[in-house]
Each structure stands twice: as structure tokens, then as C-alpha cells.
Specification:
The protein is α+β, with helices and mostly antiparallel strands. The protein has one domain. The protein has two helices and two strands. The protein has a two-stranded antiparallel ribbon. The two termini are about 15 Å apart.
Length: about 60
């Protein structure tokens, strides 16, 4: 789920960007919602999850 504060929208997704230890990377969710360039993603367990989120979020904009 991504919450866009600027537009009060909620987006549901099947997967979230998590580190190898299972922590959700909220910073990346915020960067996607705010349109910022993503920072370091080397600790992601599944790099495809972030690409799917970006595509899904951008398709709804």
C-alpha cells in the first residue's frame, strides 16, 4: 500500500520493497509517492518489487 499524502489516495499492491531481513523500506515508498529519485536499493531482497510499484503508481497518475 502506498499512501500519497498530497492527493489523499491509497494504492494497494501485492508486494512491498523489503530488506533481506524483512523490514519494509518506507523511504522508497515515500520517494515513489513524492516523485523523487530512488536512493540506495542494494539492500532490497527483491529489486523487482520496487519497479512494479513504480510502474503501478505512475500508471494511476
Amino acid at each position: 500500500m502506498i499512501l500519497s499524502e498530497s492527493e489523499d489516495k491509497i494504492f494497494f499492491t501485492g508486494d512491498l520493497p523489503k530488506t533481506r531481513s524483512g523490514k519494509i523500506m518506507r523511504r522508497l515508498l515515500r520517494d515513489i509517492a513524492e516523485g523523487h529519485v530512488l536512493g540506495d536499493t542494494t539492500t532490497l531482497a527483491d529489486a523487482n518489487a520496487i519497479e512494479l510499484l513504480k510502474d503501478q503508481y505512475q500508471d494511476t497518475e
